[in-house]
């Protein structure tokens, strides 16, 4: 059964460091104040490694990758 | 191992040189790690390099710091001329050899170990718990610096310059971060800035009053004097 991965930003924790948009520009853009805007929450398999890297890079652990089996 | 010990006990004392060199390098790397970490915390955003690169450099240098810290600890324990046990490397203030300074070293390395371990599992720990431990780095850095001030090489001008540079870098970045954290919380930021500025003032006064040499247990004094004479030929620090 394929696993579905989805990105989530915790708006309380997020300080707008912007590292996630640097590492995963395919899925994450920044608004005019530097806070992330998700273009899509579902992460395709080809971007999974990049998504994990972006999650690990967040200095305030505000970006999470949730996994749920379909 | 005994062969290494015998070699170390005679002649140029490579272990002692390794201890001093790795300690100095570890302090430099720790300072760089701290400066980069504070820069990340203050959302430093340079034009030329990406922010994730600063963050990655902070993490990679922290691992390198631990490597040199490990070398510093292992060579200190392995050096038969310095009576330091494995226990003293883990539990603060149990060593009889230059007790206060070695105790500070153990305190600093224990704190850094806690910071490193919690950072390695920070995604599992969650932000709050990870950050609570991560603040210890702010305490570990000055403790490590104070531990370095009575060192064998601390009488060399170059080494003192190095310490001053480390101090200036960290205090500058801390003040920058406090400035960036504004506006608001003026009292908290001002008191933090005063604390940051009090560290070099206290350390400077401490060095000037000169209690740093020939302290500690009975065997410390002859050892210190003997090593002190050879300190002018320190193999590191860039002097010929």
From TrEMBL, chain A:
<keyword id="KW-0408">Iron</keyword>
<dbReference type="InterPro" id="IPR051269">
    <property type="entry name" value="Fe-S_cluster_ET"/>
</dbReference>
<dbReference type="Pfam" id="PF13459">
    <property type="entry name" value="Fer4_15"/>
</dbReference>
<protein>
    <submittedName>
        <fullName>Ferredoxin</fullName>
    </submittedName>
</protein>
<keyword id="KW-0479">Metal-binding</keyword>
<keyword id="KW-0813">Transport</keyword>
<keyword id="KW-0249">Electron transport</keyword>
<keyword id="KW-0003">3Fe-4S</keyword>
<keyword id="KW-0411">Iron-sulfur</keyword>
From TrEMBL, chain B:
<feature type="transmembrane region" description="Helical">
    <location>
        <begin position="132"/>
        <end position="148"/>
    </location>
</feature>
<feature type="transmembrane region" description="Helical">
    <location>
        <begin position="160"/>
        <end position="179"/>
    </location>
</feature>
<feature type="transmembrane region" description="Helical">
    <location>
        <begin position="186"/>
        <end position="208"/>
    </location>
</feature>
<feature type="transmembrane region" description="Helical">
    <location>
        <begin position="101"/>
        <end position="120"/>
    </location>
</feature>
<protein>
    <submittedName>
        <fullName>Ferric reductase-like transmembrane domain-containing protein</fullName>
    </submittedName>
</protein>
<keyword id="KW-1133">Transmembrane helix</keyword>
<feature type="transmembrane region" description="Helical">
    <location>
        <begin position="20"/>
        <end position="40"/>
    </location>
</feature>
<keyword id="KW-0812">Transmembrane</keyword>
<feature type="transmembrane region" description="Helical">
    <location>
        <begin position="61"/>
        <end position="81"/>
    </location>
</feature>
<keyword id="KW-0472">Membrane</keyword>
């Amino acid at each position: 059964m394929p696993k579905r991965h989805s990105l989530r930003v915790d708006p309380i924790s997020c300080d707008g460091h912007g590292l996630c948009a640097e590492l995963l520009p395919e899925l994450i853009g920044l608004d005019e104040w530097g806070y992330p805007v998700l273009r899509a929450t579902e992460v395709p398999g080809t971007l999974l490694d990049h998504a994990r890297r972006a999650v690990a890079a967040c200095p305030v652990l505000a970006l999470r990758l949730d996994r749920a089996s379909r | 191992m005994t062969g290494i010990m015998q070699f170390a006990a005679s002649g140029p004392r490579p272990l002692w040189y390794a201890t001093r060199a790795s300690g100095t390098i570890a302090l430099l790397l720790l300072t760089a790690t701290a400066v980069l970490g504070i820069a990340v915390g203050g959302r430093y955003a340079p034009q030329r390099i990406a922010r994730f690169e600063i963050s990655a450099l902070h993490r990679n240098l922290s691992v390198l710091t631990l490597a040199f810290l490990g070398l510093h600890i292992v060579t200190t324990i392995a050096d038969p001329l310095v009576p330091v046990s494995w226990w003293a490397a883990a539990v603060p203030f149990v060593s009889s050899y230059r007790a206060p300074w070695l105790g500070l070293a153990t305190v600093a390395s224990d704190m850094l170990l806690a910071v490193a371990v919690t950072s390695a599992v920070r995604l599992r720990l969650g932000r709050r718990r990870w950050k609570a431990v991560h603040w210890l780095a702010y305490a570990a850095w000055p403790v490590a610096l104070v531990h370095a001030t009575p060192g064998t090489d601390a009488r060399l001008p170059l080494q003192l310059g190095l310490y001053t540079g480390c101090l200036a870098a960290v205090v500058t970045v801390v003040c920058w971060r406090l400035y960036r954290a504004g506006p608001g919380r003026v009292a908290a930021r001002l008191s933090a800035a005063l604390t940051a500025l009090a560290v070099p003032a206290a350390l400077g006064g401490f060095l000037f009053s000169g209690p740093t040499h020939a302290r500690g247990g009975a065997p410390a004094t002859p050892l210190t004097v003997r090593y002190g004479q050879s300190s002018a030929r320190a193999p590191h620090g860039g002097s010929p």
